[in-house]
Amino acid sequence: MTVDNGDLTVEVDRVACEGHALCLVYAAEVFDMDDEERAVVLVDPVPGSLRGAVEDAASNCPVQAIRLHAQSAASA
């Protein structure tokens, strides 16, 4: 689900992450890999200009390790 206004926060399940690094292909501005070859979030909340890229990264993660949490402006 996509919310057009409000913040989008990102969480990586480090247990599920297998280090495929596809998130970097879609949103290198938001994700990086740590020393254990697991994804880490660099930018949180995500700016609106990167929202689509982060949604693509989450939907294309082969192990679904990326969770997106949208908060509408009304409930912020």
UniProtKB/TrEMBL annotation:
Q: Which Pfam families match?
A: Fer4_15
Tell me the keywords, alphabetical order.
3Fe-4S, Electron transport, Iron, Iron-sulfur, Metal-binding, Transport
Q: Does the keyword Transport apply?
A: yes
Output the InterPro entries linked to this UniProt entry: Fe-S_cluster_ET (IPR051269)
- Recorded superkingdom: Bacteria
Alphabetized GO MF terms? 3 iron, 4 sulfur cluster binding; metal ion binding
Which cofactor(s) does the record list? [3Fe-4S] cluster
Q: Which Gene3D superfamilies match?
A: 3.30.70.20
Q: What is this protein called?
A: Ferredoxin FdxD
